[in-house]
Design the sequence.
């Protein structure tokens, strides 16, 4: 990638290109001690793939609500660069939907729980990665046949480029990270609820999700659901995560 085409990121980020899996590489870099704000981006055009290293100062449960900060960064960043009125929503706990079909989502991993500044059970590091499919197969004679998945080109977002989306993600994530640090999880929770595709789903103050039916309330633990992504980009597309 020509350096002139690199995303213009706000202060606080350190961006490097990555030849392999950005998420796995960022996790290893976090183990090796890179600082907060270290970001990797894969140099490819058919899929936008990037990952960010954070160094939380909160215990594991509130720290994991940073996954919602990442989701809002991806959702709002996409909305900022996509054509006006492109329908985008969030699929709990980790998917970005365009026209109700998945184009990708986020991944989250964290390091060992340690003591920081007098707080216990704080993740030594936390990585938020994301991937969004930009194009489908070049030889696809029947685009749109898979209703569960789509790509930006098929949804009329062909002008959205990888650098534009990474830049927009970084800027909107920073906005929501500032809100999260200053005002806690509540404003993030309200924003995610507004953009959720499943309006019956509620978010608890600790970040877990819940559904009520027939007088019974079912809790879905965020920590458990983040152990494995709820999305996998179709194998017909290159470099499946």
Sequence:
């Amino acid at each position: 990638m020509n350096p002139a085409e690199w995303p213009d990121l706000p202060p606080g980020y350190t961006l490097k290109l990555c030849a392999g899996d950005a998420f796995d590489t960022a996790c290893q870099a976090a183990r090796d001690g890179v600082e907060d704000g270290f970001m990797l981006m894969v140099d490819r055009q058919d899929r936008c793939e990037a990952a960010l290293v954070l160094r939380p100062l909160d215990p594991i449960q509130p720290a994991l609500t940073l996954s919602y900060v990442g989701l809002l960064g991806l959702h709002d960043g996409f909305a900022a660069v996509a054509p006006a009125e492109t329908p985008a929503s969030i699929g709990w706990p980790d998917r970005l939907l365009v026209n109700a079909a998945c184009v990708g989502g986020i991944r989250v991993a964290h390091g060992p729980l340690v003591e920081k500044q007098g707080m216990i059970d704080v993740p030594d590091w936390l990585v938020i990665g994301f991937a969004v499919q930009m194009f489908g197969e070049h030889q696809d004679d029947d685009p749109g046949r898979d209703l569960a998945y789509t790509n930006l080109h098929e949804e009329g977002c062909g002008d959205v480029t990888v650098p534009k989306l990474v830049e927009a993600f970084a800027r909107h994530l920073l906005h929501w990270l500032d809100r999260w640090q200053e005002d806690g999880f509540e404003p993030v929770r309200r924003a995610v609820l507004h953009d959720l595709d499943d309006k019956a789903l509620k978010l608890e103050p600790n970040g877990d999700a819940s559904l009520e039916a027939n007088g019974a309330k079912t809790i879905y633990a965020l920590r458990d659901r983040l152990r494995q992504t709820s999305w996998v980009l179709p194998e017909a597309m290159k470099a499946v995560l």
Notes: Confidence is low (pLDDT under 50) at residues 236-241. The first helix runs from residue 22 to 31.
